[in-house]
Design brief:
34% helix; single chain; five-stranded antiparallel sheet; eight-stranded antiparallel sheet
């Protein structure tokens, strides 16, 4: 079959279809499509379910947030109440803790009156009193040692055999106050030596001497407690762990009980300027100084008068320090007592207090 014949065959085969198409175009025929019974969704499949879950989570989070806010508010209310209660308890505890100290100070004020001067620091508390008894005028210095640097003993001019006034020693060391310490013995060459057993910075100045006659050692231990008494053996004194101390006579109180005062010291002299040291149950110290015009026995205080006064104050242990013209009390750069010599006496040992 030739190409011409093939073309004629296909043309004849397609003729009916071409004719129908021409008819449709010229006749204006239209075809109506049936309406669908639903509106197609434009959202991807499954998005509505996820949105619902998200909304539920948001609603739940909102409820949790409200609950959390309420819990926090309750917590802060509870915290505020607790803080107020704690503050009130602290104030009450502070007030209760201060009561024993207040009672203690009031007990002392009942005997000596109100303090005339006070010094308070992290190192020490000092209260100075001035009082008058029927037979003498006196001073009291209450000392609360708060640190190891609050009190020390000094040798006159820092040399054995030398002496200086308590005021000179206090000024030289920068001490806030000072009291005369132990007794002394003068040598033929004019030197003044501390009497019997004397300790400085935990060491014996010139060895231990067993107690003789009515002498007694008095000083401070390394834990800032008043120690003293009669010692026949060095080991007995060493057990008290002494830091410093000096010697004089006699012992007035032991464990709160009055000690018998040797007759020699009751009457020779009967009255005199005196320096006494004692301690309370809380380890605070009390120094009592009695003024007198001379050493002839007609002015000043007797030892039993001072013993009674200390017992009334509930002092535990008490010792008599050097007296007469040696009695010295200095405070803030001034001499407080009236020295019976007319001026302060140079001494070999001094108790000094530091602010």
């Amino acid at each position: 079959m030739t190409a011409r014949e093939i073309n004629r065959f296909f043309l004849l085969s397609l003729a009916p279809f071409i004719g129908m198409a021409i008819w449709l175009l010229t006749a204006g025929f239209t075809l109506d499509m049936p309406l669908l019974g639903f509106t197609p969704s434009l959202q991807p499949f499954g998005l509505s379910a996820e949105a619902g879950q998200v909304q539920q989570s948001l609603d739940k989070a909102k409820v949790n947030a409200v609950a959390t806010k309420s819990t926090i508010e309750q917590f802060f209310k509870l915290y505020e109440q607790s803080a107020n209660d704690t503050s009130s308890m602290l104030k009450l505890a502070t007030a209760q803790a201060a009561r024993p100290s207040l009672i203690f100070d009031n007990r002392i004020a009942a005997v000596f009156g109100k303090p005339t001067r006070t010094v308070t620091s992290g190192n020490i508390d000092l209260r100075l009193y001035q009082f008058s008894d029927p037979n003498y005028k006196g001073y009291a210095l209450k000392v609360d040692l708060k640190s190891d640097n609050a009190m020390k003993m000094a040798l006159g001019k820092d040399k054995v055999g030398s002496s200086e006034t308590t005021l000179a020693a206090a000024n030289r060391y920068g001490a806030i106050a000072g009291i005369n310490a132990g007794g002394f013995a003068d040598s033929d060459d004019g030197k003044r030596y501390p009497l019997s057993t004397t300790m400085l910075n935990g060491k014996y100045v010139y060895g231990f001497e067993p107690t003789f006659e009515d002498l007694a050692f008095v000083g401070l231990s390394k834990d800032r407690k008043l120690i003293g008494g009669k010692f026949s053996r060095q080991a007995d004194l060493d057990k008290l762990n002494p830091s410093f101390g000096a010697t004089f006579v006699p012992i007035l109180l032991k464990g709160g009980a009055k000690q018998q005062i040797p007759s020699k010291w009751l009457n020779s002299p009967k009255r005199a300027p005196r320096t006494i040291v004692g301690n309370f149950g809380n380890n605070q110290l009390l120094f009592v100084v009695a003024d007198g015009y001379d050493e002839r026995g007609g002015s000043g205080a007797t030892l039993d008068e001072l013993q009674d006064k200390l017992a009334k104050l509930r002092v535990v242990d008490a010792y008599n320090l050097d007296g007469g013209g040696s009695t010295s009390l200095v405070f803030e750069g001034r001499t407080i007592n009236t020295p019976s010599d007319g001026r302060l006496r140079p001494l070999p040992t001094h108790f000094l207090f530091f602010k």
